[in-house]
Structures are given as structure tokens and as C-alpha cells.
User: Fold these one by one.
Assistant:
Number 1:
Amino acid sequence: MYYGIDMGGSKIELAVFDAQLTRLWQKRVPTPRDDYTTLLAALVALVQEADAVVGGGRVGIGVPGLIKADGTLFSANVPAASGRRVQDDLARLLERGVRIDNDANCFALSEAWDDEFRAYPSVLGLILGTGVGGGLVFNGKVFSGRNGVAGEVGHVRLPVDARAILGDVPPVACGCGQIDCIEGYLSGRGFERLYALAGGQTLTAPAIMARYRAGEAAAVAHFTRYADLLAACLGNLLTLLDPHLVVIGGGLSNVDELYPALAARLPAHLLPGCVPPRIEKARYGDAGGARGAACLNLLD
Ligand SMILES: [Zn+2]
């Protein structure tokens, strides 16, 4: 059996899968946010409960944050675990190997192991949500890089095309310390900010898209600008990575108009003769975190 744990800022989910990735059992508990010993105890209790139900399994855990090269976790969402060696501590307490990765990589891995998508040797998972994140999966395994930040596409900076597309909008200071990371423009918040800056009101992304569908001129111009910028940014990533499949998750992945808009725009951003990859909406949504964590143990 394969246990996937999705540790979020408010809840921890453990799901048990068989080798065909059929989910057999699942449980959610609140995340102890402030005390590390309590957090570890909650994780151990979940695994022991799963053991009692299914008789044991290999453990993978997805965490919000960065697993640093020295094995410690940096996580703003789960302060109790930040600076801790979660993987080592869990492995010791559970007396079994534990694999760990960040939640964006687990998202990408879950999609890459979809029954249909697993035929693709390389998959870029792109999250257009509260922030912009991503993960790279090559031949069924996450590629995390030397510092664990491979696939953190939200902190790639705006491409040179951006100023012509965006016009005179003020720069965005990113939480990472840089200016004008693409997250500031392509995230759900960025989408809403660009609409407001262009003279629209402060609205949620779904409300803006409702106006787009009703033919509001400001919303139509806004969506065109956003799609142009997303295509320019994604075009750079495609030239770097040339993935066979791109899977888009996060709230903006539900904007169905994005997919034909990208297909129309991407060829102009690729090298001559290159064909854009298949681009699909994520299939696992909120269930992808635990599923992806379970997939960490599928290959040795
Ligand atoms: Zn940044």
C-alpha cells in the first residue's frame, strides 16, 4: 500500500492507495500549527490508524514550503514544522522510510501518474492559484534540483514582452524579495489586480470572468492581456523544458477560455518548427496533494 499525506496549513489528510492508485481509505485532521511534538504525534497517529485498517504501507508526505538542501523544512504555513527535519523525524518515529516533497511537486506528480497522462515522459505542472507554483516530473519522478526549487516558476521574472503587453502598470514587490516575479501578475491575485488597474473594479476572478462572458469591454481587454502575458511567460518555460504535457491547476485553471487562448498564442513564442505541448486542466484538484505524496514511493 501507498500512504500519501498532504500536510496543509489548516488540515492534514492521509489517503491510502493500492498499486493501481485506487484510493482505499482516507482521513483528515486539523493541523497542529504551533507545537512540533504535537504535529508529529498527529502524523504518527494517522499512519498508525491507516496501518490498523490496511495492514501497513510506504509513506510519502507533501508539505507547503521548501525542503532545503540540509533536509530542514522552511514553511510559512505550518510554523511548527519550519526549520525541522520532518522527513528524518517521521522516519524514526514510524520505523520506516519516509519520502517528502513540496505540495506543488506532489500536485505535478499526481497529474503525471494519471491513467492517461502517465504515457508522457515529461510533465510540467503549473499552478495558477493564490500564488503561482509548479513542478517538473520526468519519467514518473519529480525533478527537484540542487536546492529543491526546480519548478518554482512563479519566481521567474517577467519576460521582455511583458511591458509591451501590460503597458504602464506599477511593479510588484514579490514575497521572495525580488521585483516583478510572474506570480505577481499570473496568480489569481495578479489577475484581479490587473483588472482593477485597467479601470475595472476590485472583483474576484470568477466575477471578472462572468463580465467577460457577458461581453464587458474592460473584461474582454483584460482577459486578452492576461492570456498574452501567460503565453509569453509559458513560452519561455516551454523553450527551456520542452515538456510533453502541461497540466494547469489552481483556481484559474477553471477558466475554460484559457486553453484555446493559449493554443492560439503559444506558437509565436516558440522556436521555429516547435509545436506546443498538450495543455490540460488538472484532474485531481484538492485530492491531488495526498495522491501525489503517495506517488513519491511508486518508483525507487
Ligand atoms: Zn518572487
Note: The mean pLDDT is 96.
Number 2:
Amino acid sequence: MDMVTIKINGLSYRVPAKSTVLEAAREAGIDIPTLCYLKEINEIGACRMCMVEIKGARSLMAACVYPVNEGMEVFTNTPKVQQSRKMTLELLLSIHNKKCLSCKRSGNCELQKLCSDMGIDNENRFAGDMPPAKYDASTAYLERNNSKCILCRRCVSACQNQAVAVIGTNNRGFDTQIGCAFEMKLNEVACVACGQCIISCPTGALTEKSNIQPVIDAINDPDKHVVVQVAPSVRAGLGEEFGLPIGTNVEGQMVAALRRLGFDKVFDTTFGADMTIMEEASEFIHRVKTGGKLPMITSCSPGWVKFCEHYFPDMVENLSSCKSPQQMTGALIKTWYAQKEGIDPEKIVSVSVMPCTAKKFEIARDNQSAAGVPDVDYSITTRELADMIKMTQLSFNRLPKEEFDHAMGVSTGAGMIFGATGGVMEAALRTAADILEGKELEAIEYNEIRGTKALKEATYNVAGIEVKVAVVSGLENANALLEKVRSGEKEYHFIEVMCCPGGCVNGGGMPIQPASVHAEYDLKALRAKALYEHDKVQTVRKSHHNPVLKQCYEEFLGEPGGHVAHEVLHTTYVKRSK
Ligand code: SF4
Ligand code: SF4
Ligand code: SF4
């Protein structure tokens, strides 16, 4: 790697020649504050927080976009620099709704932290007119409160990176606001509910639409039987909300917390993931053997499904008809579980904890009511679960490790890896290969499709059939791949698509880490590692060996892909406009 020598605050450093001043300084252990900068997502040098002095330059320079060069001398902390940063913050605060005490992001807000770090003691220095505060709560999953927006545009870039681009800046100057074109509401545009804008936002301007209160009301209603299910990724991220290292698996404490919050049963969506594999593998084999529509594309990710419906409506027949693991678990709670326990499905309140905001959209889709009532009544995010735990004053890190409740708390390692990009495909291959080969295969780790690379391709020989697969995450990548599939340039039998880059572990409902942490750590890789390690130590690692799942087919569903299974576990899609 080409290196150059620069001086930062009077000391010499050898740094990669292609670094920016910000990267070089951070590498040297010197932090430079930022607001609009979000590594690889928004590198636009707009907010002017990262201004530094550079010897010989006439004005201060934005460190996040300024490249290093041989012999450069940088000063990151001079009185001029400090004054500039303070002024920037004071100007931002002059049009900011400074209700920190009740703000959802208080304690995890990059603006609040910088004001505290910089010792801003006169937050009203430039008080004056405020722009009209625009508010959008038109969808089931997201709330925008522009009175807390600092116009950093991180959300805009995140949405563009998802190949959706339904938000941008409206108006100019003092009237500039983030929103949809022509002041439309989010429910009037082709937003896919992914929440990537939320996890990119440094402030409380973007949050998920909360379902905490109705869940608490249900728990407090003695006539209701409240069952919760938790997605695999939640256990790999929840600990971050309680100060634990990124990638800590907190499954045991999470289950204990849910029980103490008052849920009557605590089930694992991983059970539904195993069920998804049984149905999906059976559907795939059926399509291959009968000349059905190929490539078959996974349907676990509701953000991806909505994207496909809006942007590739000609390919909705390629989507697997399987409901997602959330919906399969929900459907079985209100059918098989309700029958076994003798509970009226109308009295069951089915709650899911998901890494995802699109799940809030999915629960209200058509054809997601196997028992005639919604499969899932409320979906909350990992962050909302953390909020509930904090509201209840549980000492999360001191909770004992407890196990899921029986029946739908029993799962396999295959279901666990659903949270990472490539996990659904690997789990499906573990089962499909055994079924097609008619024997128990020893090799069950499909390393070619692991890892956080945007696109992974492989060809496997299964029972004499060459099966070409692709795994893609992030909608920009999915968009590029599907264009090639549509044009015939690429041919596959089976494609896994996850809406969020890296899969559900990086979903829009996961804990929000500041930009400085994003720059240093690969969140998706660390969280995914927790899931793969969990899978590795399981005694049962293939979905078709889940003993409760076998019981469920014997007692209730019949054959995978059979009539009852289809009624309960499969769904339909619609063609939407852009
Ligand atoms: S966005 Fe940040 S600074 Fe603004 S009210 Fe919320 S916590 Fe306070
Ligand atoms: S939820 Fe996703 S698609 Fe919708 S505005 Fe946010 S980033 Fe864009
Ligand atoms: S909504 Fe959040 S991410 Fe978007 S511009 Fe405003 S502060 Fe930045």
C-alpha cells in the first residue's frame, strides 16, 4: 500500500496515501467530530463539523472528504477549529426542537453528545424563527419529525443506497426539509419499509412507529393470552442497548427479560425459520421437478418482497409462496398451538420482536390470517424491546439465562443463521440436499455463501443436478442482480435476497450505533458471527430434524407443501406501482 507522511497536531504519522484526513487522524487515535459523515453511505462534507486547519490552506477544510498528501500538516484542535465547531452546533440548535428529556434518542443522539462534548452552554444563542415542523406518521413503521432534523442527509443516501430514493430535500435555504417529492406522505410513495434511513439518522428525527403501549395493554389484560416470538438476530444485537460488546449473544437473558415483562409464552421465531425451510425446500424441489418458475427467490424479507412488488412486478411469480418465519410462527400460534392448548385464537395476542421495521408492514398484509385473525398482532423492533426492558427497570445484564418455552421454542442451528446474509440459502441447502440425495450428508457448512460480500454465487451438485444459487443483500445489489436475471444475462435456480445490507442483523429495527462506531467496526459481520457460533454448538443443525416441527406436521400440517400446510403457511403477492 502506498503510504505518505503527514503531521497531525505536530506529530508525524505514516498513513495510507488514499486516506482522508478524517481516516488518517482516527487511525492515529485522534477523533474528529462528524455529523453528516456515515462511512460508505454518506460522505458529502456538508455539515462542517469536521473542519480542521491545514497548513497553507486559506480556510478550514472538511476532514471527511479532504485527501491526505505527502508533507501535509493538519491541526484538529486549534481555537479557530473549536470556535467553528461550536458555531456550527449553535446554528443547528437555533432551529432545533430541543426536547432532549423526552426524546427517543436521548443518550444515543450524536447531536446531543457533540453539544455535551463541546461544552455548548448557550443553546439559544441564535434563537429566532423556526421553520415549520413537518411530521409524517402515515405508515405503520416509521415516524418523521423534522423539528429534530439537522439536514445531514444520511437518510437520503441510505434510501438511495437501497435503490429506492423516495426521500430527498424539498425547498431551499431556511425552508429546506427532508421529505418525499411533492410533499407526499411516505405511505403514498414506493417506500419499502426497510428502516435503513432510521438507523442512519444521528438524531431523533426518524424513529420506528412504536407498538409498545398496545403490547403493554395486552399484557395487562387478564382476558388475553399474550405470546411473544423473537427473531434470531435480536439476540445478537439486544446486548448493545445494555453496553455489551457488539456481537454478544444474549439469548438467555433476553428470554428471562420477556418472561419478566409478563408474556405468557416466549417462543423462538427460529422455529418458524425451520418451518420455512421445510416448505421452501419442498417448493423448490417441486419447481425443479415440474418445470415450475425459476429462479425461485426467497420471501422471508418483507422489505425485499415489497421492493419486488413495486420495482420488479413481473417477477413476483418467482417469489417463494412461503410466508416469512415471523408469519409462519404467528400462524401456528393461532392454529396448532391454540388448538393444543384449547385457547380461542381471538383471545391470543401474538407479538413479534424483530430486527426489522418492514415486519410492522408485513403483519397487516392480505392473506396473513391463517385462523381468520391476524397471524401476528403487533411487531416491535429490537430497540422497542430494549425500551420496554428499560421502562420496567430490569437489570438486563444481571438477569439469569433462561430457555424458550417448549413447543415453538425448539429450533435448530439452521434456523438460527437466518439472520445473516446467506443463512436462509445455507439452511435450505442443508435440507434440500438431504432430501434429494435421500441420505444424511455430513458436510453442512456452505462457506461459499457465507460472509458479508454483497453478492455471492455458487454451484452445487445435488443428487446429480447442478444447482446454481446466488445470495444478495442490500436492495441496490438485489436490483443490479435482478436486472441481469430479467435480461437473461444471469441464470440461477435459487436466489436468496435480503433487503438490508448484510441481512437482518443489520435491519432497520436493530440498535443504532453512532457513525464513529460504524467507521471502526463491521456491525453486520460481528452480529452474524454470534449467530454462526450459536449454530456451530447446536446438536441439531438441520431444519428437518427439529423434533417439534416433525410433531407439528404429524399432528396438524400433514406433508410439507400439502393442503393444510399451504392454507396455513403460504401467501400471495401483489403487483404494485413505483
Ligand atoms: S434529537 Fe438529540 S438533541 Fe434533539 S431533542 Fe433529541 S436527543 Fe435532544
Ligand atoms: S424505509 Fe427504506 S425505503 Fe423507506 S424511506 Fe427509509 S430507507 Fe427509504
Ligand atoms: S432525518 Fe435524520 S438522517 Fe435525515 S437529514 Fe434529518 S437528521 Fe439527517
Note: The chain is about 35% helix and 15% strand.
